[in-house]
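Thread amino acids onto this structure.
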């Protein structure tokens, strides 16, 4: 789709500059939260984003960044809507996102591990992103943000964040 001014591909590209404020190595493509881009006429672009953790303050920041970046590219009106059709889960994180998280020192969500109760209840086994040891311990259900838990590796002694599973 193209309206003569901007193409979907271009907008898609521009939006890769929008990062998750809590995990700055991930952009909204990596997160899997960008649901759709609609070019309506010559003036308006509507971007649908799936909310992640409910009440996560990151969503406001992300919506503001989407508007700011697209407006800076000369799109006069940008609307950001929340797409509630399919609730976001950590399964939507791309394979690349998992690699980026690990390289950043955050253990990616364990695929197939317990559901949203992981936010509140018992710990899952999370391999250390530094040395890959599975000999790790939950230190706190809440790491640097509510979406992460704090773990410590019993082998290399390094503490690390775990991106909790949610679905
Ligand atoms: Zn380790």
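Threaded sequence (167 positions):
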């Amino acid at each position: 789709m193209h309206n003569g001014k901007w193409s979907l591909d271009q907008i898609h590209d521009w939006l890769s500059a929008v990062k998750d404020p809590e995990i700055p190595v991930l952009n909204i493509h990596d997160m899997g939260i960008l649901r759709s881009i609609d070019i309506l006429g010559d003036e308006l672009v509507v971007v649908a984003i799936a909310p992640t953790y409910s009440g996560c303050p990151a969503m406001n920041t992300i919506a503001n960044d989407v508007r700011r970046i697209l407006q800076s590219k000369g799109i006069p009106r940008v609307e950001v809507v929340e797409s509630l059709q399919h609730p976001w889960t950590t399964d939507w994180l791309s394979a690349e996102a998992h690699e980026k998280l690990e390289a950043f020192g955050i253990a990616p969500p364990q695929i197939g591990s317990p559901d949203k109760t992981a936010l509140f209840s018992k710990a899952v086994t999370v391999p250390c992103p530094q040395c890959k040891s599975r000999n790790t311990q939950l230190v706190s259900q809440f790491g640097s943000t509510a979406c992460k838990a704090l773990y410590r590796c019993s082998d290399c002694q390094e503490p690390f964040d775990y991106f909790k599973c949610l679905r």
